[in-house]
Design goal:
about 70 residues; alpha/beta; 3 helices
């Protein structure tokens, strides 16, 4: 199981987030404004990420469905 759970501040009070956190006995939770502050930075060490995986609880942004191309 991952040692750390990152949660966006805007979803921390949602019922689904609370239900997710109840699955763990004593999780290390770190709150952030946006998940990209931590996970999409340049020069990240891929091997280190695989050694210590973490979970992210975030809200989907943008459209959920891509538009159909006009030539289709």
């Amino acid at each position: 199981m991952p040692e750390i759970i990152y949660i966006e501040k805007r979803v921390q009070t949602l019922p689904r987030t609370q239900a997710f956190l109840r699955r763990f006995s004593n999780p290390t939770v770190i709150f952030c404004d946006h998940y990209k502050e931590i996970f999409n930075r340049r020069n990240q060490n891929f091997r280190l990420q695989k050694e210590r995986p973490a979970w992210i609880v975030a809200q989907k942004e943008g459209s959920l469905v891509h538009p159909i191309p006009p030539q289709y």
